[in-house]
Amino acid sequence: MHWQRLQARVEKQHLGHLESVLELAGASAISLLDAEDQPLLEPVPGTTPLWDDLLVEALFPADSNLEPFKKMLQQLGAQAIRIDPLDEEDWVARSEALDQPLLFGKRLWVIPRHVERPPTAREDDERIEVFMVPGLAFGSGLHPTTALCLEWLESHPPKQQSLLDFGCGSGILGIAAAKLGARTVSMVDIDPQAITASQRNAKHNQVQERVWVGTPADLAEANFEVLVANILANPLLELAERFAQLVAPGGDVLLTGLLDAQAALMIDAYEPWFSDWSATHLDGWLRLHGKRSGHS
Question: Alpha helices, DSSP H only, in 156-206?
Answer without folding.
Answer: 172-179, 192-204
